[in-house]
Amino acid sequence: GAVAIIGANRAGIFLSLIPFFSTIMAIxxxxxxxxxxxxxxxxxxxxxKYPRSGKATRKTFxxxxxxxxxxxxxxxxxxxxxxxxxxxxxIAPGITTEILKKRGNMDCPEIYLSVVxxxxxxxxxxxxxxxxxxWKELLSILLQKEHGILHGIKSVRPTPPNPYQRIHDDDxxxxxxxxxxxxxxxxxxxxxx
Length: 193
What we know:
193 residues; alpha+beta; seven-stranded antiparallel sheet; 41% helix
């Protein structure tokens, strides 16, 4: 029953779980980062993005949830675009990528930040170093979370069910809520075997 309800009304359930989600994420994030995360999920933040080709433009970046994963998203010329935070390998402050080395202002390396993936980078510029550092800190936390190395997540995991015991709808619902809200790294890998 719980799986059908979640599939049929995912948006409604997610909205009803905001207090639950807030509690879990607040355990992991410091209060300031969590408030910043909530703001970026709801409203987004204006940031200058340096594309691989073309002119640097101001875009609204936000965090979105897709099937339990956290994505950094923005509107591009082909509609919504984004990267799964699980694909990110590094959050690099300063002028470190080829794109920023060619196009960034070498006199102000403190305003740049690159979200580096295996095959590309998302190169960003901020009004000042303080705002860049806020984004860097939050992105670093999300990177650790999505790679399963943020130790605070493990402390909020429910006890895995005994594989030989019947799973009650309440237990299944609790696992599905955690998976939907936090992502696949909140659930032990042995659950999927």
